[in-house]
């Protein structure tokens, strides 16, 4: 039995597990948003960073990468790794995955994806919507054991550009973070 995992955040550029194949594509009716607090990777409990989650959005698509894991042992190791890495994500969904922008038939079905829900009882680190400016300020400040929060944003932006994917939320946020950094550098000098 083959397992497929969909990555739409850091999994795009850093899987962290053995896989047999990586396919670029998208899921439908979801959008990527920086609404999840990160207190264990890109921030701390005192100053959470922000990472992406998915929210339902009819008619939208979220590009990312699907990873095929065939060997049972590799699947077990990947799941162990993901359960730790994605522990702040309280939901798993099994979705259709598409590779053709105009296609109506999924390339794959039952692709596993981790989602951080907006339910504060199940997901204490959910931060929710905020203005681009406020999210950017938080990202500029935050850093955690996995590095600065801005690095996560910039690597995601870069990975999506390599797919030739336009994600307005990610690019607007990255541009605002660069503006804040540049402004602070000018003020400091």
From TrEMBL:
EC number: 4.3.2.7
Record localization: Cytoplasm
GO molecular function: glutathione specific gamma-glutamylcyclotransferase activity; transferase activity
Source organism per UniProt: Rosa chinensis (China rose)
GO terms for cellular component: cytoplasm
Predominant location category: cytoplasm
Name the UniProt record assigns to this protein: glutathione-specific gamma-glutamylcyclotransferase
Lineage: Eukaryota, Viridiplantae, Streptophyta, Embryophyta, Tracheophyta
PANTHER family linked to this entry: CATION TRANSPORT PROTEIN CHAC-RELATED (PTHR12192), GLUTATHIONE-SPECIFIC GAMMA-GLUTAMYLCYCLOTRANSFERASE 2 (PTHR12192:SF2)
Family of this protein: Belongs to the gamma-glutamylcyclotransferase family.
Entries under InterPro entries matching the protein: ChaC, GGCT-like, GGCT-like_sf
Tagged with keyword DNA damage: no
